Amino acid sequence: MEAQRICILGGRGFVGRHLIPRLLRDGHDIRVVTRDMRGGARLPLLPDETVVQANPHDLEELAKVLEHADVVINLTGILNERGHNGRQFQQVHEELPRQMARICRAQGVKHVLHMSAVGAQAGMAPSFYLRSKGAGNNAIMVELGNVVPWTIFQPSVIFGPDDSFINRFAVLLRRVPGFFPLACPESRYAPVYVEDVAEAIARAVGNPRVFNKRLELCGPDVYTLRQVVEFTRDQLGIQRRIVGLSDGLSRLQASLMEFIPGKPFSRDNYQSTRIDSICQPDGRNCLGFEVFDMQPQRMAAVVPTYLKANAQDSG
Ligand SMILES: NC(=O)c1ccc[n+]([C@@H]2O[C@H](COP(=O)([O-])OP(=O)(O)OC[C@H]3O[C@@H](n4cnc5c(N)ncnc54)[C@H](OP(=O)(O)O)[C@@H]3O)[C@@H](O)[C@H]2O)c1
After folding, report:
1. DSSP-assigned letter for residue 315
2. What is the mean pLDDT of residues 57-66?
3. What separation in Å is there between the alpha carbon of 16 and the centre of ligand 1?
4. What is the 78 CA–ligand 1 centroid distance (Å)?
5. Distance separating alpha carbons of residues 35 and 21, to the nearest angstrom
6. Dist CA 51 CA 45 (whole Å)
7. Which pLDDT band, with edges at 50, 70 and 90, does 44 fall under?
8. What is the CA(10)–ligand 1 centre distance, in A?
9. Mean pLDDT of the region 56-76
10. For position 44, which CATH number holds?
11. Any ligand 1 atom below 6 A from CB of 74
């Protein structure tokens, strides 16, 4: 694949940090858009990576940063909103992709890659998060149609050395003495390694095999949340009894944790757990890692390589 000028929205986040070095290895010219350069400045810049500050919700600023891009990758996303009515989810997950797609179409972008989530479904899904992600997928498909090739990625929960999934449980497990109350213990996930997600996105760039397709990205193993937390505990080598909360208590915990700064768990997160975060590719419009002959890595093989070191670093 020849080198492309790639513009990445939301590229200063977790996935972007792993994707950008991978894209640079392919010789692409990378421009990363952030709303706040100070946030970006905390991260070391890679040689050949250009970071520009812009508000992606401002149409003029968005059009300007997308100018001259051959390929656009959208990694923007939020897990929780400031309010409680779904408005911010809609703004970030639906309206932004719609405007981005319109501009890409008008400016003759050659391929748009958009990050969604497994289980996303407009109207049908149980949470604002998943419904807005589904509406964003629809906006991409409608606005780009058959004019600009698009690829939508729908991962399960993503893990990696700097994730906020396993690492968050690791921190909580170490802080909470005795027993650990766990909401939604039977919800199911197929955790996928961030390097595999980055590899799949890199292989998708300009690749006609995945034009106008959705790709569900899951790791090879399905775990309940209880199993994930037990695995994390065992890797840390600490004694904690994991106590699964009932549905009612899970909902109560979500309501209370909404008031903790940063909303570590919310009623909308609780709603998202009502469906399994696992992949069901159909081999036609919805593909998986197999389209790239990739075998995603197992959480049980990768997490032990970094978890203990992370735990020691965080004291
Ligand atoms: N991590 C996972 O387990 C997971 C699972 C499924 C799907 N996904 C999806 O994968 C994508 C990347 O995830 P990630 O883990 O890398 O997320 P992340 O670390 O939270 O980064 C997301 C980026 O979105 C941008 N952003 C946040 N709030 C925004 C707002 N209100 N308006 C515009 N931009 C905003 C931020 O960019 P700036 O602050 O630099 O502007 C941030 O760098 C997201 O779409 C996410 O929903 C992630």
Report:
1. -
2. 98
3. 9
4. 5
5. 21
6. 8
7. low
8. 6
9. 98
10. 3.40.50.720
11. no
CA distance 38 to 195: 26
Contact 131, 122 (CB under 8 A): yes
| Closest ligand 1 atom, residue 158 Cα | 3
Mutate to test the pocket of ligand 1, among 76, 89, 92 (most ligand atoms within 8 A of CB): 76
pLDDT at 43 over 80: no
Query: Does the beta carbon of 78 lie inside 6 Å of ligand 1?
Result: yes
Q: What does the block give as tokens for 90?
A: 């809609």
- Tell me the Cα Rg of the chain: 19
Res. 48 pLDDT band, cuts 50 70 90:
confident
Does residue 245 belong to any structural domain of this protein? no
Q: Is 161 in the pocket of ligand 1 (CB under 6 A)?
A: no
Q: Which domain holds residue 84?
A: 5-158+192-218+279-296
Residue-averaged pLDDT of the chain: 95
Whether residue 198 lies inside any domain: the answer is: yes
Domains contained in the chain, number: 1
